Amino acid sequence: xxxxxxxxxxxxxxxxxxxxxxxxxxxxxxxxxxxxxxxxxxxxxxxxxxxxxxxxxxxxxxxxxxxxxxxxxxxxxxxxxxxxxxxxxxxxxxxxxxxxxxxxxxxxxxxxxxxxxxxxxxxxxxxxxxxxxxxxxxxxxxxxxxxxxxxxxxxxxxxxxxxxxxxxxxxxxxxxxxxxxxxxxxxxxxxxxxxxxxxxxxxxxxxxxxxxxxxxxxxxxxxxxxxxxxxxxxxxxxxxxxxxxxxxxxxxxxxxxxxxxxxxxxxxxxxxxxxxxxxxxxxxxxxxxxxxxxxxxxxxxxxxxxxxxxxxxxxxxxxxxxxxxxxxxxxxxxxxxxxxxxxxxxxxxxxxxxxxxxxxxxxxxxxxxxxxxxxxxx
Length: 378
Prior knowledge:
By secondary structure, the chain is an alpha+beta fold. Helix content is 39%, strand content 24%. The longest helix is centred in the middle third of the chain and has 32 residues, at 118-149.
């Protein structure tokens, strides 16, 4: 084993949704348009701090008789803003351009439209689809809860439980795709916040880190650091005992897609921590290959977690050692998030997890690995 040299509720996010625009000098912004069915109502322009801080009201006007309005404001950087009346009407927008026109109908959210702000347009479309998926999930949860309280038919309850799982996955996949394809730091920040409602913290952390690296935006970097600190605080003292739930893992595969350990629930999983530069790991790989080939058709798989810091070396080793299973890495060597979470003091190291996500055993190598699996799959 190679020893490590250095171990260097929803989350309480308190970061202000401060600027992400590349123009550090900021500028003057105008948002204007027309709001039907809100004539003569007071309209507020507000900055939206993210994660629990009070919304900041920047200005207020009265919408004219024709429904027209206009605000001019100064902002240092890109952020999230809101137009709101006292009649529970609100529109979220992003100040990614200097002149933004937003038209809406206070009695029909589906008619909202924007000109001059691509990020706001993307946000409108995202929220439209998110609300549809979230509403569908809520209806399923409501019906499932009601049926369980009434001791309903098991077959119907089972069907609704299956629907719940599928709808949560569909919602989370949609949020993840929206985050990974977005270029606006403000859009990403807002979407990460919604993701906290239904995603594991480790998955949000992986998405936040990826977004921070891509955009180099300070608020996203700070957001990722905050979540990382919370995740570490919640997991670092947890022993890896048999019968306990295996800590979540969320990392990118070679194509950049974030995969979680929990997505493999339903299978026996050997979580294998290794690296291309680790001689003992490479020597153990043929044994892991043998186990995989023997038991892969018996509801068993391997999840490779690499402590590499060079992608080319990592993938070359995967190919050369014929490791034909799923592989993940954040390419941070001993600074990888899994090192502390799984209390890794050296590699190779592995954890065998059952279909429910509970730990069966750790540090299975050589003949011990083969014998343990043979007992599970006689």
